[in-house]
Write a structure and sequence with these properties.
- The chain contains ten helices and no strands.
- The protein is an all-alpha fold and 196 residues long.
- It has a domain of 135 residues: Orthogonal Bundle (Tetracycline Repressor, domain 2), CATH 1.10.357.10.
- Helix 8 crosses helix 9 and helix 9 packs antiparallel against helix 10.
- The longest helix has 27 residues.
- The termini are far apart.
């Protein structure tokens, strides 16, 4: 699917996100979604040929947004790597708080493992995040801000894994824990451990 979504497709994806957020990803069906939008199922199929195409569209839509937000952060040359990492994760965490259903979609690997197209797109999303974090770590090591005791890959994995746990805890709490506070505390702790 290309990234040029029509207004109607965006409306359908927003309704899908709302349904996932309210009832869980298993309740996302063409029948339920059509009812949510007061459309016939046939009308909905004119915009997306299947539920998987809606989910794929959602992931692509999230990726475009993430790419844009992260791109605006990492081009700042007057900031340290640690400051850029803090901004990057603040942006991600705030986005999750504003759009909790994003987590329900991107943390549903179990549902996606049997669909190659969806799992490949999720992998691309993770790789994009991983590459951006790794480039900031690498820059920090070159500038002498970040310790070289661990490899760029090891530090990237530790940060991503830790932040994933914070998001998972938030998701399992029914979005009741303070994601931004917890995520900031964990990231700052990790940065203290790796900064020179």
């Amino acid at each position: 699917m290309d990234n040029n979504f029509t207004d109607r497709q965006i409306e359908i994806m927003q309704a899908a996100t709302k349904r996932i957020d309210s009832f869980g990803i298993q309740e996302l069906t063409i029948k339920n979604l059509a009812a949510d939008l007061n459309l016939s199922e046939a009308a909905l199929y004119r915009h997306f040929e299947s539920k998987n195409k809606i989910l794929l569209g959602l992931i692509n839509y999230f990726m475009l947004d993430m790419k844009s937000r992260i791109g605006d952060i990492i081009i700042q040359e007057n900031k340290t790597s640690a400051e850029l990492l803090q901004q990057l994760f603040a942006s991600q965490l705030n986005n999750f708080v504003k759009n909790p259903a994003i987590c329900s979609v991107i943390f549903s690997e179990g549902i996606f493992q049997f669909n190659k197209e969806l799992s490949n797109q999720l992998s691309k999303m993770m790789e994009m995040m991983q590459q951006n974090i790794a480039s900031l770590i690498e820059k920090g090591q070159k500038n002498g801000e970040i310790s070289t005791l661990l490899s760029v890959d090891a530090i990237t994995t530790i940060i991503m894994g830790s932040m994933r746990m914070v998001v998972l805890k938030w998701k399992l709490s029914g979005n009741k824990s303070n994601l931004i506070k917890d995520g900031t505390m964990v990231l700052n702790g990790l940065l203290k451990m790796i900064e020179k």
